[in-house]
Design goal:
Order of helices and strands: EEHEEHHEEHEEHHEHEHHHH
CATH architecture: Alpha-Beta Complex
Radius of gyration: 17 Å
Structural class: alpha/beta
Number of strands: 10
Strand content: 15-25%
Helix content: 40-55%
CATH class: Alpha Beta
CATH superfamily: 2-enoyl-CoA Hydratase, Chain A, domain 1
Length: 260
Amino acid sequence: MSEEKPILVKIENGVCWMSLNRPNKLNSIDPGMLDMLAQELDNAEANAQVKCIVITGVGDRAFSAGADVSVLSKLSSVEAKAVISDKGHRTMLRILHSAKPVIAAVNGLALGGGCELAIACDFRVASDRARFGQTEINLGLIPGWGATKLLPKILGPAKASEMMMTGVILNAEEALKIGLVNKVVPADKFEEEVKTLATSLAKGPSVALSEIKKLVNDDVISDVILETEAKSFGKIFTTKDLKEGFSAFFEKRKPIFKGS
């Protein structure tokens, strides 16, 4: 598949498949992709033929490695909040508030913002090759797309804090054990299993499914709740530790943080 279109979309049997298409960059997400994903979610929401949405990544290495660090490293504090965190929040809220079930088909790495994209979805089906982590702390950063608010509601405060504060990367079975994913499937049967679930949901009673989703997600997360995360995300961009984190990332070494 070509990388000319960073989001690939197809509709089959009532299911809208959205694929992040930057496999050479582990499907990392830049601001333009956030805008495009939000627009495609709006299109799917407005399309009466679409009954279920699946989000996945192109290739077998990554669902998404998160926000594009090469973009993050060039942003000011104000830009980081507005261009990355606020924009990411708007995209995640589209998933959470969609009337249609959304499945994250996690085919590989789901790190940082990629993990946040997955947890915004109603279902997470993982290939046995999948890996999950809120790894922002390794850069001296915090999650900026909702994990600080949503992950504790999924895992509880202790496990969520462990993921976010240590940057631990979990394999698929570990993610299943703590309730981060619904199901783990062998890689050779992964697409078939996702398709079966998506088709089943697409054939289900759409009004009832929509009402269940609304009741589950009402008051879970909102613009007001996320604003505190966005402000903290922007604040981190004034720290020397983050500059060190970015330098270490590009130099492929371990960062030396000094708490400033």
